[in-house]
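User: Design a sequence. Structure:
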């Protein structure tokens, strides 16, 4: 039972997250003692294939003079089936996951004979989401090997599709969204040109964020397109990581700058606001490094769970950090309004920043919680819907930010007449009476 818990925890966590891509994956295992090692996950259609090539197989710490190597090998298992397999192991109905009727054995090491490598092609006709796993039921046997796994579905004239069944249309989705952002970039440039007399520095920064998001989507579309056709990204993943990093850093920086009122209400940043930027940017660097490690190593690595947790923690910290400047701005202007009658104007101006604060919270909650929940509960065939939901939310957030903070000579949020100022003062008085 104690031996089952680490593997059960690992697979439970692994099942909660989908890998970013289903490309041809090469993995190296060195003196690994784990009873269960997950390698890859893929959504098969009725014409699915798994090509498994394993080289340089060696053992250390043999459990006995004549070990039963049929208890060591690779198998495929669905998420639902694995829950029942674990139950069988706990109830001692079976002594090894490879002996369960609920798994599909791909290759067991008793077939090795005197060889230290093997190659096999497994045909999968039952459409479902499968995880490729390695079982080692001969403790304390340690295994070393180089594993190359290739998963794909056959389409049309037996053309290979290396993307999972639920992600095969992702190249088109990313390309369509990149076109939408190209339109936004052109529209924003037009606005900046027409309103060039009222343009602030923040507006050019917003243009840079849009451009980086566009390039990020284009690279991701090409990345997924090459993986779909060839099983490899051919270098497009490097560009994707670069633009993803720049997009993430600039987006969080933009939220901080807008939240502090920089370039709108004041031309400078306070020390504590600078500290927020100094925290957010390095954390984004860590988050992007963690993301690269997760994508490149896959779940078979010893530190995969740790890196996954680091990425989630850093992402949450970044999301919380960008909210502080907005809260500080609201608090400072509210306090100033109580001591300075003219400051009632600033309180009225802050209406926009209150709205923005709510929108930022909704955006973070939706993209971090709702999208994750959607990906978890959605059938493997419709995993692309979580991507569409996240990109639609991001697009709506960008449009809202641009519309509310566009350059305008008589923006009602920044210019108030006497009647509006009196209304603001009256509103402040009512709020004070309500608090008392």
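Assistant: Done.
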């Amino acid at each position: 039972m104690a031996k089952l818990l680490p593997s059960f925890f690992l697979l439970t966590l692994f099942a909660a997250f989908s890998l970013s891509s289903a490309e041809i994956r090469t993995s190296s295992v060195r003196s690994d003692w784990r009873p269960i090692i997950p390698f890859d996950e893929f959504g098969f259609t009725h014409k699915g294939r798994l090509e498994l090539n394993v080289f340089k197989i060696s053992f250390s710490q043999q459990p006995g003079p004549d070990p039963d190597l049929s208890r060591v090998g690779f198998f495929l298992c669905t998420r639902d089936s694995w829950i029942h397999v674990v139950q069988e192991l706990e109830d001692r109905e079976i002594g090894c996951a490879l002996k369960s009727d609920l798994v599909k054995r791909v290759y067991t090491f008793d077939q090795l004979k005197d060889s230290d490598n093997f190659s096999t092609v497994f045909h999968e006709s039952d459409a479902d989401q499968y995880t490729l796993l390695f079982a080692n039921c001969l403790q304390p046997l340690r295994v070393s090997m180089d594993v190359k796994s290739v998963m794909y579905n056959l389409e049309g004239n037996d053309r290979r599709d290396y993307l999972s069944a639920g992600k095969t249309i992702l190249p088109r989705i990313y390309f369509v969204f990149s076109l939408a952002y190209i339109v936004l970039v052109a529209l924003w440039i037009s606005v900046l040109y027409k309103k060039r007399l009222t343009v602030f520095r923040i507006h050019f920064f917003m243009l840079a964020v849009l451009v980086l998001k566009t390039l990020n989507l284009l690279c991701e579309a090409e990345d997924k397109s090459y993986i779909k056709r060839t099983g490899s990204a051919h270098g497009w993943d490097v560009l994707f990581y670069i633009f993803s990093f720049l997009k993430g850093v600039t987006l969080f920086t933009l939220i901080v700058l807008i939240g502090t009122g920089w370039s709108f209400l004041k031309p400078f940043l306070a020390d504590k606001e600078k500290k927020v930027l100094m925290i957010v940017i390095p954390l984004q660097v860590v988050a992007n490094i963690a993301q690269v490690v997760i994508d490149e190593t896959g779940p078979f690595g010893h530190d995969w769970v740790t890196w996954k947790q680091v990425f989630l923690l850093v992402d949450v910290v970044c999301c919380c950090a960008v909210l502080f400047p907005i809260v500080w701005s609201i608090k400072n202007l509210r306090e100033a309004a109580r001591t300075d009658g003219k400051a009632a104007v600033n309180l009225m101006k802050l209406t926009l920043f209150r709205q923005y604060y709510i929108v930022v919270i909704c955006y973070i909650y939706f993209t971090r919680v709702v999208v994750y929940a959607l990906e978890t509960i959605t059938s493997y065939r419709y995993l692309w819907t979580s991507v569409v939901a996240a990109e639609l939310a991001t697009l709506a957030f960008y449009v809202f930010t641009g519309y509310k903070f566009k350059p305008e000579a008589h923006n009602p949020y920044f210019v108030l007449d006497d009647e509006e100022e009196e209304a603001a003062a009256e509103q402040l008085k009512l709020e004070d009476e309500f608090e008392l």
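The two ends are 61 Å apart (CA to CA). Residues 170-435 form a domain with the Rhopdopsin 7-helix transmembrane proteins fold (CATH 1.20.1070).
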